[in-house]
Amino acid sequence: MMFIKDLTCISPQKTIQEEFFGTEPIIYTGSQLKAVEPSYAEIPRSQLRRMGKSNRMATGAAMPLLEKWKTDGIIIGTTDGGMEDCHRFLNQIVKFEEGTLTPTNFVQGSPSSPAGGLALMSKNSGYNNTHSNKGLSFENCLMDADLLFIEGRAKRLMVGCVEEISQAQYKIETLAGFIKQEEISTNKLIGCGTAGAVNGEGAAMFVVDFENDGAIAEIVDSEMISCPILNDLTLKVKLLLERNGLGVADIDALMLGYSGDSNSDYWYDDFAKQLFPQTGILSFKNLFGETPSASSFATWFAANLVNGKPVPPMAVQKSVSGELKTVLIYNHYQGNQHGFVLVRGV
Amino acid sequence: MSRVVVTGIGVISAIGNNASENHNSLQKGGTGIGKAQFLNSKYAEELLFGEIKLSNEALLSRLKISVDSKLTRTELLAFVAFEEATKDAGLSKEELQDFETALLSATTVSGMVEMEAIYADANTNTEPSPFVSSYRSGAHTLQLAKAFGLRGYTDTINTACSSSANSIMQGARMLKAGKAKRAIVGGVDSLAKYTVNGFNSLQIFSDEITRPFDANRKGLNLGEGAAYLVLELEEDTVGKTIYGEVRGFGNSNDAYHPSSMSPEAVGVKGAINGALETADLQPFNISYVNAHGTGTENNDYTELHGMNQIFDVVPPFASTKSFTGHTLAAAGAIEAVYSLLNIHHQEMYPTLNWQTQMPEFEQKPLLDFVPNTEIKHVLSNSFGFGGNCSSLILSKV
Predict the structure, then answer these.
(1) N or C: which end of chain A has fewer CB within 10 A?
(2) With contacts defined as CB-CB under 8 Å, which chain B residues touch A172?
């Protein structure tokens, strides 16, 4: 499918400073895991002040890559990108009773703003797209990139996701029952037995290439399904493995989207039990939190692990034996949208 | 390589609640732009809109499928057009539920059309409103998947006003690459207080009916609508009506400004040239252009400037936004359906309301309906803020 040449990540962990692997992760208490942001020294201050958080994080994570690598296009996945601006604009409409408003929040509140902003800043007039599909946005980005490679219309692309915690969407998700009510420390999140997840945010960005020329890891393939029954999931994964010439035994570890939500974590238990009873299990949301683009953070994490970075003990849910070369990420969003990403060492 | 063809169309807009009503209005030249009846905004009194002439209750009563959750207006419009398109293509329940059936939709406003509900859920409610999970992009796609039992690939694209051109493009590319057997592609946007105020803040509304490509154009009228196309590979369509082929597609970013287009028309040219290239056609092959033609100062100049640099002789072109208003994320799909009607009926639809020649150019848009003409290849342009420019070429099979 494609090879990861370079990658960055802004997340609730110290992933942007490269201090994350081999050090103690940050343990959070409460349901908002805020991003540890860099100093953004490379962004002019005047520009930085005007940026919403998603634009800022997308720029901070992607621009160093875009400056280093020539890419043929930019593909971004985001659902909550610009959400704070969006609600600011919405609140202005109410407050000023549809009076004369300034367009800044409206323009920045569009999910397409980060991809457009990156094109503008890097003067990239190539392919540009934004997938805003809740829990499958990253899988959509991968399909988009894969197609461009197959068509021969691109050799190298910027692909990634950005999500922000906005207080309005946090409140809405809380009302809908998707946010944990009580304060739980993230090292006790998984298996805590209560409803809801903890919210995360950040940006995971990848330079992907058609060819493996000094790559860090390979994104082998991806699959998805909406509103499945367990048997559908099993069928999809069998298809995914089969078309890549792999069997269950080739998967060294599952990386599962356990969020600590007692209403929906059973999917992961059942899935692992049914098809991968012997396979080691890793988690990532007790480090990075839940976002619609969670699988992009999982992919950043898995790519580093198959490239030899040490596995943080907090991520081990069932011990992994032997070399970690091939990781199958399975993640669902709120029980409805289920996605798979297969990552392999090179 | 096998051709990607369109076997079903569904559309709802200010000029009709289905494809045949839309076709009738395009032939007769009647605009759907006027006073809004259902839009809840103070601008409903002051401005003109391309509103669909049905209440939410009337939209719901048109649906064949029963849905257990409360649908937003965005979702209702999507469901109406989706049902029409899939029925038109004769897709069976088994085909809809096949792993190999993809759904690629687009929206910008999503469930934010329910502004009172979102405001209350975000600020004051202690109990969730019925729309609590409908606000974010992707919600309507998930509702469609849930209601119709879709089990394949789904995507929701938001590149502002070029969104559904991109969902059509993405679906066609998936079929060509063998990533799906059939795809239902399109987009939806409903008239919403949120976008009305957004575009008003950008000061690009006209206080009269829009006049695309007119020297005295004053801006756009916001519209609403939904359209879906069923894409299949030609070899799978024996005995089916084929409206046309999705032959070319181009996507380029203008990389100039967050909400306006470059005077050099970088993105416009990139998108059109990309479409010509993938279609393996020369500019002179294009029979007709369904222009983006929003009726704003910036768009119409840039679009025509870009076309002048590509075409030695600019083909007949028109903006059907003078019929429908600007339907944002639905525009690319609605105009793709109109382009297929151009091809299927071998006729050209005009731009309404045009009066004065733009001094910068020699060309003016097509002003009259032209029946019985030869249409082989239609170029359909869609440009959005964020610099997102996309073009499609739909061709006679």
Answers:
(1) C
(2) 118, 121-122, 132, 135
Is the distance from CB of B155 to CB of A127 less than 8 angstroms?
A: no
- Checking if the pLDDT of B68 tops 90, the result is no
The percentage of chain B sitting over the pLDDT mark of 70, rounded to a whole number, equals: 100
pLDDT at residue A193, as a whole number: 95
Give the residue from B119, B121, B109 showing the smallest Cα distance to B191. B109
Between chains, do A175 and B267 touch, taking CB under 8 Å as contact?
A: no
Contacts of A147 in chain B (CB under 8 A): 170, 173-174, 177, 179
Question: What CATH number labels B4-236?
Answer: 3.40.47.10
Residues A256 and A305 in one domain: yes
The residue assigned the tokens 């994350």 is: A20
pLDDT number for residue B258:
86
CA atoms within 13 A on the CB side of A93: 28
Which residue among A119, A133, A225 sits closest to B151, beta carbon to beta carbon?
A225
Residues of chain B with CATH 3.40.47.10: 4-236, 248-395
Give the H or E element holding residue B19: helix B19-28
CB-CB under 8 Å, B135 with A147: no
Q: How far away is chain B from the Cα of A91, in angstroms, using its nearest Cα? A: 8
Q: Give me the amino acid identity at A153.
A: R
Residue B341 has pLDDT above 80, yes or no: yes
Question: Model pTM greater than 0.95?
Answer: yes
What value of ipTM does the predicted structure carry? 0.98
Chain A residues touching B145 at Cβ < 8 A: 226-227
Taking contacts as CB-CB distances below 8 angstroms, the residues of chain A near B383 are none
Out of A172, A225, A336, the one facing B135 most closely (by C-beta) is A172
- 3-class SS at A339? strand
Q: Does residue B1 surpass a pLDDT of 80?
A: no
- For B260, the closest chain A residue by CA position comes to A107
Query: What's the length of chain A?
Result: 346
**Mean predicted confidence (pLDDT) in A27-55:** 95
CATH class of B248-395: alpha beta
What integer pLDDT is reported at residue B134 of this predicted model? 97
- Residue contact A112–B160, C-beta within 8 A: yes
Per the rule left: phi > 0, alpha: psi between -120 and 50, beta: everything else, B382 is beta
B145:A226 CB<8 A? yes
